[in-house]
Design a protein that fits this description.
Length: 463
């Protein structure tokens, strides 16, 4: 156990933050570390050399215990692990706690507040930071410790095995997890019919079908009007396939319907394997109230970018249309810079982005909570990012990205955000409603098997 070692003096003029001055020799206070500040516990945010004063540093931090009176020149030193562990135990949420790992500065377990996921969460880190692994650990704990429904848009097939225990996991955790994942459903393109990822074209609203067909209500007003009439009349609902819909339109007596059929054929949309007509078990159905405890939509198994965009949009649209049912759902959007980008590249992605923005702005009152994950923070729609009240930040070398996050998500201390440039794989800054305080956390081992996987590096082993 580390003993408190006074290394300097600290002052607080507001009873919530403090500044300190200390010698460099023997310094144990670093950004993110915990300090005994007189009789109180604090967390250091910044440490820098004192200009013109050799061998001294100055810094700032926040007091973790409330109701502190202002003070001047009290001793400050590194807090020992027992003190930190005792404080964390006292601040643990009365709601479910998610044991995701331990503090990077101490050998102390750290629990996320599961109830904090009723706010939107931004989860980011560059390639190789351990982002997908850490996100999987969070989802496993939510499955294990809560009853919250989860819908995952999974573009890299990273979470398709979240219902399969990893080798070496046994005992009580294994038993509990097996029970928790009985309700996990994975839908993949090209799978057997009972597990097939499909979307009913005839369930789309007119604006969704128009986006798929690249129809503009002004520029293509005749075709758009015909499409609206078809949707309202339900004339194609008894078709067995989108190919049959195209054939019927091409054989129609009026030129506007034939033009719409030609558009469908020319775009090749009718050949996409994602479409179904009257089939049960579409992802629109599964995303609604009464659906599975966890639904993983394996976008990575679909062949074309268009199909991936349609699947993502259809899930978000289905959840938004059924918002009045007030069924709490955590909507996980991995690689969100592709699903709800700042600058959508096509009509379907623009519609998906609009749905994500609606959920970000108004979804919480209907029980729709976002968890948005990305490697590229500045490429995600800024209205989605700005509505997040939680941050899980892993290694991020880009200074511009760190500055953007610190400015947009101001609840995370900028000085701690900036430390993400030096994180090791698996390290993260956790801040917001899911944490008792902004904390540096190292994610622990997974319970379930990972999906996806890195490309083998055997090419580097020589000939």
């Amino acid at each position: 156990m580390r003993k408190n070692r006074p290394v300097g003096t600290a002052t607080s003029i507001d009873g919530s933050s403090f500044s300190f001055h200390a010698p460099v020799d023997g310094l144990e206070l670093q950004p993110g570390s915990y300090a005994s500040v007189g009789e109180h516990l604090g967390q250091v945010h910044t440490v820098e050399l004192v200009a013109g004063e050799r061998g001294s540093v100055q810094g700032q931090g926040m007091l973790l215990e409330g109701g502190v009176a202002p003070f001047h020149d009290v001793t400050i030193g590194r807090a020992d692990e027992a003190r930190v562990a005792t404080w964390l135990e006292g601040t643990r949420p009365k709601r479910a706690g998610l044991d995701v790992g331990e503090l990077t500065t101490e050998h102390v377990r750290f629990l996320l507040d599961a109830g904090g996921f009723d706010r939107h969460t931004f989860f980011c880190g560059q390639s190789g930071s351990g982002k997908s692994y850490a996100l999987g650990a969070v989802l496993e704990q939510l499955l294990l410790e809560t009853s919250l429904r989860i819908v995952v848009l999974d573009p890299n097939s990273d979470f398709v095995r979240i219902g399969v225990l990893r080798d070496g996991v046994d005992g009580d955790v294994a038993g509990r997890y097996r029970s928790a994942v009985e309700g996990v459903v994975v839908r993949r393109g090209g799978s057997a019919e009972s597990e097939r990822l499909h979307v009913r074209f005839t369930d789309f609203e007119a604006e969704e079908q128009a986006a798929v067909l690249r129809l503009d209500p002004i520029r293509d007003r005749e075709e758009y009007g015909v499409l609206v009439d078809l949707v309202e009349q339900g004339l194609e609902k008894n078709a067995s396939s989108t190919g049959e819909i195209a054939d019927r339109l091409l054989q129609a007596p009026d030129p506007e319907r034939r033009a719409l059929g030609a558009r469908l054929r020319n775009l090749g949309v009718h050949r996409w394997s994602i479409w179904s007509t009257g089939d049960e078990g579409s992802i629109q159905d599964l995303a609604g109230a009464g659906g599975p405890r966890a639904l993983v939509v394996d976008l990575g198994s679909l062949e074309t970018p268009g199909e991936k965009a349609i699947a993502a949009e259809s899930v978000l649209a289905a959840l938004w249309r059924r918002r009045a049912e007030r069924d709490p759902v955590l909507i996980v959007i991995d690689e969100a810079h592709n699903v709800c980008p700042r600058e959508p590249a096509d009509e379907v992605t623009a519609l998906a982005t609009e749905r994500a923005v609606q959920i970000a702005a108004e979804g919480r009152k209907f029980g729709l909570y976002l968890l948005v994950s990305t490697q590229r923070p500045q490429r995600v729609n800024e209205l989605v990012v700005s509505q997040c009240d939680n941050l899980v930040l892993m290694r991020m070398s880009s200074a511009a990205d760190r500055a953007y996050l610190a400015e947009t998500l101001s609840f995370a201390p900028a000085a701690l955000v900036d430390r993400a440039g030096a994180f090791r794989p698996g390290d993260a800054l956790v801040a917001g409603k899911v944490a008792s305080h902004p904390a540096f956390v190292r994610f622990g081992p997974r319970i379930a098997e990972e999906g996806g996987g890195d490309v083998p590096s055997s090419w580097a082993e020589g000939l």
